[in-house]
Amino acid sequence: MGKETNMCSCSNVNTEWLFERPSDLLWVDKIIMTQNEWNVITGVEVKTAFEKASKLIFERLYTEGIVQIIPDTVISKSRAELILENIETDLKYIEDLYKESNCENDPVMTMGNFHFCIPSLWTLYAAIELSMNYGANFSMSKDELAYLLALLPRKYAREIHVGQKKAIDEVLNLYLPSVELGNSYLYDSEKGRCPKCVHLDKCSSSYLIQIEKQLDTIIRFRQYDEIRMTCEVMDKLCERSIMQGHVLTGEELWGDLQEEANKTGRILKRNLPTVKWWRKISTYATIGLGAASFLNPIIGVASAIPALAGQLLADYEERQKKESSWINFVNNPESIYKQ
User: Fold this and answer.
1) What pTM was estimated for this model as a whole?
2) N or C: which end of the chain has fewer CB within 10 A?
3) Which domain holds residue 268?
4) If DSSP codes are grouped into helix, strand and coil, which group holds residue 25?
5) At a CB cut-off of 8 Å and minimum separation 6, what does 64 contact?
6) For each successive 10 residues of the chain (339 residues), what is the average pLDDT?
7) Is residue 281 located within the same domain as residue 194?
8) How far is residue 120's CA from residue 125's CA, in Å, rounded to a whole number?
C-alpha cells in the first residue's frame, strides 16, 4: 500500500488471517484492497505454497464479488507524510515499552514478544484511515493489536476497546467446525520438511485442490439466510456492547444471540397467524377484481391495490420464514448441514 507514496512496502501484504481465521469469510461483506496489493498477491512472481494458495483464494473471491479493489492514490503523498509525523508523535507515548535495535540496518522495534517498524506502522495507520473513509473494519496482526493496546490508553488517557471480532470468530468456529481453509503442506513446505517426505509429489499436486473445495464450502455457507442473519445480529450485538464500554466474550455473545432469537421467536408466534390470514384474504380479493376487469375495465384499475398488498404480504411472509429458519439454526446449528 505504500508504493505510490514512496513508503517501504516490503511488509504490507499479510494474508495470514485467511488461514488463521477462515470464518471471517462467512461474515465480511467485502474485502477492500489497493491495486498494488492485488498486483502483489496475484502477480507472476508468486512462488511459495502460501503465495499460490493466497492467489487462488483472492482470485476466486474476486469472481464472487467479495473483493473490491481501490486505487493506490486514495492516500496522497502529503497525507502519507502526515501519517509518518503522527507515528513519530505516538511512539513517544510508549517509548518506555519498546526497544530499538542496536543494529543500524535493523529498523525493527521490540515490545515483549511483539515486533513492529515504522513502515509496518504506516500501513496500520493507513488501514485505519481507509477503514473510516470506507465505513469498514480492518484486519490486524497480533503485533499491530499489541501496539494499539499499548498506545491508545496512554494517548487518550482512558481504557480503549479494540476489536469485536474475537467473539464472532469463537462462535462461528464453535458452531461451524467444518469451516477450514488451508493444508498442512503450506506449513510443512515453509519449514523445509517436505523435500525429505515420500509424499511430496502427491501433496504438492493436491493441496490447492483441497483448498479450493474448502473455499467452495465457505462460499456456499455465505448464501444461507441462517448464517447471514446470524452474522448480522452478532455484528449488531458486538457494536452495541462496545458502545456501552464492554467487549463481549464468545460465551456472552452466544448467550445474547440466543436471547435475541427467543425475542424474535415470540414476535413471530404473535404475528405469523395474522399474516397468513391476511394473505388469504388478499389472494381472494386479487382474484375477484382480476376477473371483474374482463367485465368492467374501470373496476379492473383497482385490482393493482390488492395485488400490491398481496406481494408485500408475500415478501413479509418470506422474511418471517427466514427469521424462523434463523431461530432454528441458533437453537440447532447442525441443521445447516441437512440443507
Assistant:
1) 0.72
2) C
3) 250-338
4) helix
5) 219
6) 62 75 85 87 84 93 94 85 91 92 81 89 86 80 86 81 67 72 83 75 87 92 86 86 80 89 84 64 51 42 48 69 83 72
7) no
8) 9
